[in-house]
C-alpha cells in the first residue's frame, strides 16, 4: 500500500524507498506472498509514475531511424511489425509527408485534376519537414537539470529489485509478460537521458533489459518490435556513453544480449560499433574510468 500510494512530496518518496528495500529483504524469504498481492505489477506501476514525473522536466526520448536493409532478411511477421514501428516514428516526427504519401494513393485515377490539386496543396508542408528536429533535441538534455536525489534513490531501489526478480525462479511464469506493459516505455526514457538520471540509473536500466533477454532469449524480438533495443544501441553507440568504470565494463554483456538473434546482430553492425568503441578507448574523457584501481586489487598489482 505504501508503494502504491502516489505522493509526490520528497519525504513521502523517501518513505516509499525504504518500503521498497524492506520488500526486497522480505522477498528473499517469501516470494509467494509478494506474488499473491500483485507486487510486481505495483512496482512497475510506481516506476511508470515516477518516470512520468521526470518526463515533465526532461521530455526527450531517443527515436532512432530503423534502416530497411536490416529488416530484409527478417521473417515476414517481424518485418511487418517493424514497418509499423517505423511509420509510427515517422508520423510523430513529420505528420505532413506521411499524410501526403497516403492520400494520393486513395484518390481515384479518374479525378487526375483533383489529385494534382491535392499534390500542390500538400507540397507546402514538405519544406518545413521535422527531420532536423531530432538533432535539435539533444541540447535540451544537457541543460543541467537532474533527477532529484530522493526520486533517483527510489528508482534505483526499484530497478535493483526488478533486476533480481527477473532472475528469480519464482517469477518464471509471470516474468515473460513483464515487458508487455509500460515497463519498456519507462526504460526507454531512462536510457535516453543518462545526463538527467545519472550513470548508475542508466546502468541499471540497461542491466534490467540485459538480464531479461538472457532469461527469455525468445522474447528479444518483442523488444526489437517495440524499439527498446534500438534505443539502447543509439544510447551506447551514437550518443556519448557515461564515462564510468561500471558502464564501460557492462558493454560486452549488453551487446551480447542484443545480438542473440540475426536481427539484433544486423542492427548492431549498422551502428558501426567498432569505430565508435575504438574512439571511446582512445578518448581522454574515458581514460580515468578505465584506469585500474590499485586499492581494490588484493595483490596491489
Automatic annotation (TrEMBL):
NAD recorded as keyword: no
Presence of keyword Signal: no
Spans annotated as Disordered: 90-141
Keywords attached to this entry: Ligase
Domain DUF913: 17-292
Positions with biased composition (Pro residues): 124-138
A GO molecular function held by the record: ligase activity
Recorded superkingdom: Eukaryota
UniProt biased composition (Low complexity): 97-123
One Pfam match: DUF913
Name the record gives this protein: HUWE1 ligase
Organism annotation: Anseranas semipalmata
